[in-house]
Amino acid sequence: MPGLSPIEGMSPLNPEPATVDLVIDAASAVCMILGALMSLAAAIGLLRFPDLMSRMHAATKPQVLGLFLLLVALGLQMRTWWVWPILVVAWLFQLLTVPVSAHMVGRAGYRTKHLHKELLVTDELDAVVQKAAGKVARDNKTPN
Amino acid sequence: MMDIVVVVTAVILSLAAAGAIIRIARGPSLLDRVLAADVLLVIVGAGLCIDMAVSRHLNNLVLVVAISLIGFIGSVTVARFVADRRDEPVEP
What we know:
Chain A is mostly helical. In chain A, 74% of the residues lie in helices and 0% in strands. Chain A starts with 16 loop residues before the first helix and ends with a helix. In chain B, helix 1 runs antiparallel to helix 2.
């Protein structure tokens, strides 16, 4: 491209525009491929992990990190500054909603016994459930 | 370079979608299916993001946000429903 050839007398520290373009393209390509690989990792985790809790662990990767990488790739490709706040808002929105739905699904899975107790390292909810069950039993006993 | 990226990400996302669909079909419980459907929705969003990045437009951005909202509402609703429904037979 003759239009993009280095200008005469330009400082050697300033790279020519074509090189900058290529570097930004390469960075966004890497971000896109990594973001797509997050989805693949989630699918492999969904297929191979034994119970709901570990599958939820795998499923969160493309929702947060994968979307982050893809939005960064989009921002790099657009080459403007004003898109970045929009992308940050989109990512923050995802970041706010994903934990709530994961909490709901996890609670429902725990309550309906969709987990392997022997695979858990710690079960902090068990103590709460036992305490609540004891309180319910006591409440049922007092009126009688 | 963008042509290669499109082909590579298309292959990766197709494999991921196939895995999620297999889990939707096989999933032993309803919650597994909800989780896999959520992942499938995220894969659709990833495809939209890659389309925007490669062809340099922002037309799908609202759709990406709407998809995340739909996934949130869907999984919360189904989780609520499962919890309520499975509790009833246990109660005397």
